[in-house]
Amino acid sequence: MSSLNQSLLGTSKKASVEKRGHTISLLAVLLLAVTVVSIFVFISAKGLPLFFNDKVQLSQFFFGDQWSPGKTNEQGFSLVGVLPMLVGSTAVTLLALVMVTPLAIATGLFITELSPKIGKYILQPLLELLVGIPSVVYGFVGLSVVVPFMRNTFGGSGFGILAGGIVLAMMILPTVASMTVDALNRVPKHLKHSSLALGANEFQTMYRVTLRVAKPGILTGVVFGLARAFGEALAVQMVIGNAIVIPDSLVMPATTLTSVLTQGMGNTIMGTFENDALWTLAFILLFMSLVFNLIIKRISQKGQV
């Protein structure tokens, strides 16, 4: 009897396993949270001294068009203007999104609505394969194909915003298209059947029902692609020309925040003014990533309502 009571009142083996599982999960979440917070604190501590210790003004930093840390202009202000990099990063990112968004939606509709068998067994595995290709491969393709094509078509060196936007579009298309396919697959079938039963044809149903219901998921994919494009460094650096100027055309060499950061970080000494300026670029990229994540979260919450 006493052994029966002991077995009933004691902790079972299954309960012990569940308790250990909960503990491991909690530790993993805490480790992840500490890591994220540490990254934010570390990069903020490295990036903000440019304004507080080195006394660089915000207007001078964000609206200046010359980047040469360590040198000063005639008025004695340091040449740390990031406007050319902001213009370059924004231009290549938006150009890539303009090219990718309609292609991703058309690909998603073909895979899910027009030809599900070919889409499921051929196109979707190809998209998943393309997602895993390293960015340096896209950069080599851009350097070998896109840049010569730009040079022969528009003249000049071939390096520039347009070449960078095309390479970025190739990179993020599989990601945005895959997320678009997932969003379209989540549209309830009874909504499509109801639309068809009311007399709408297949394309009217896709436009007025399927795309509208899947819009939050599609927008999430687009913003995810935007975040990846804005933070991409290597592939863009290989084809954009890396000229720190404000471009006046799409075929003129330019540069991005990530290109300047990756080129300069290994050539500066920790704690110097030049190094602080590069850490401030990293802080801007981190802040932009946070903004993109908040936008994705907001869109996802709106889609759940």
Automatic annotation (TrEMBL):
Keyword Methyltransferase: no
Job description of the protein: Part of the binding-protein-dependent transport system for phosphate; probably responsible for the translocation of the substrate across the membrane.
Protein name: Phosphate transport system permease protein
Gene3D superfamilies for the chain: MetI-like
UniProt keyword annotations, A-Z: Cell membrane, Membrane, Phosphate transport, Transmembrane, Transmembrane helix, Transport
Entries under Pfam families matching the protein: BPD_transp_1
Single GO MF annotation: phosphate transmembrane transporter activity
Annotated localization: Cell membrane
Transmembrane segments annotated in the record for this chain: 21-43, 91-114, 126-147, 159-184, 218-240, 277-296
Coiled coil: none
Gene source species: Vagococcus coleopterorum
Boundaries of every ABC transmembrane type-1 domain copy: 86-296
